[in-house]
Amino acid sequence: MTDPNLALTAEMIAGLLADTSPYLSCDDCFARIDEYVERCGADPRYEDPAMRTHLAGCGACAEEAQALRELIDQQSQQEK
Ligand SMILES: [Zn+2]
Predict the structure, then answer these.
(1) What is the pLDDT of residues 7-30, one digit of tens each?
(2) In this predicted structure, what is the pLDDT of residue 16?
(3) CA 73 to CA 67: how far, in whole Å?
(4) 61 Cα–ligand 1 center, Å
(5) 67 near 33, Cβ under 8 Å?
(6) Least enclosed by CB within 10 Å: which of 27, 42, 49, 53?
(7) Are the C-beta atoms of 61 and 32 separated by less than 8 Å?
């Protein structure tokens, strides 16, 4: 079975090596993931270190963020 998360491994390691002090729980992450993904899409310079750190270290939330990102991409393509 191929694991689609394998591609994230280098990114995950970088996240784990980074400062993990603003670590969120998955509940906290899910509470603001929509806003986070939307803001990241709207402004490439937008930073939320706590969210970024959590997503780098949590496969489940990273998958959720990826799905949201794709959804937003599809919507913005339909608007054009
Ligand atoms: Zn999580």
Answers:
(1) 667 777 676 666 555 678 999 999
(2) 63
(3) 10
(4) 4
(5) no
(6) 27
(7) no
Highest-scoring range by mean pLDDT, 5-14, 46-55, 58-67 = 58-67
What's the CA-to-centroid distance between 79 and ligand 1, angstroms? 31
Determine the average pLDDT of the residues in 34-56: 92
Which residues have their alpha-adjacent CB atom under 5 A from ion ligand 1?
26, 29, 58, 61
What one-character-per-residue DSSP string does the chain give? ---GGGGGHHHHHHHHHS--TTPPPHHHHHHHHHHHHHHHHH-TT---HHHHHHHHH-HHHHHHHHHHHHHHHHHHHHH-
Cα(44)–Cα(13) distance, integer angstroms: 22
Q: Is the pLDDT of residue 61 over 90?
A: yes
